[in-house]
């Protein structure tokens, strides 16, 4: 069982997924080279970034996407910034 905080040496050999539903345990945000920065003033709360994020890293609380980005799991793909209709998300170099 991989626990939060474990390193790459703790991953099963061959990258095998032996336990279903364990993605949360891997802090894949460490792979990121660019970080999405959300401008809460410009955001119109359309939820496009939330819908398109492949890692479910745009967090929405009580129907409000202006909450937070889960940087532990955001891989910095930039899809959220690309899909934002009002350019409220900037990709910043880490
Ligand atoms: S950069 Fe990619 S992974 Fe990170 S929040 Fe945006 S869409 Fe999701
Ligand atoms: S896509 Fe842009 S405007 Fe829409 S919720 Fe996300 S940051 Fe806000």
Layout of helices and strands:
Elements: E1 34-38, H1 48-52, E2 58-61, E3 64-69, H2 79-83, E4 89-93
Antiparallel strand pairs: 1-4, 2-3
Bound molecules: iron/sulfur cluster (2 copies).
Please supply descriptive tags for the structure shown above.
two-stranded antiparallel sheet; Alpha-Beta Plaits; binds iron/sulfur cluster; 11% helix; elongated; 94 residues; alpha+beta
Textual characterization of the structure:
By secondary structure, this protein is α+β, with helices and mostly antiparallel strands. The protein has one domain: 2-Layer Sandwich (Alpha-Beta Plaits), CATH 3.30.70. Helices cover about 10% and strands about 20% of the residues. The chain contains two helices and four strands; from the N terminus they run E-H-E-E-H-E. It has a two-stranded antiparallel ribbon with strand order 1-4. Strands 2-3 form a two-stranded antiparallel sheet. The longest helix is centred in the middle third of the chain and has 5 residues. The protein is elongated and about 45 Å long. The termini are far apart. The mean pLDDT is about 90. The site of one iron/sulfur cluster has 14 residues, from helix 1.
Shape designation: elongated
**How many domain modules?**
1
Number of helices: 2
The CATH architecture is 2-Layer Sandwich
- Oligomeric form: single chain
List the secondary-structure elements in sequence, H or E. Answer: EHEEHE
The kinds of small molecule bound in this structure are: iron/sulfur cluster
What's the CATH class label?
Alpha Beta
Distance between the termini: 30 Å
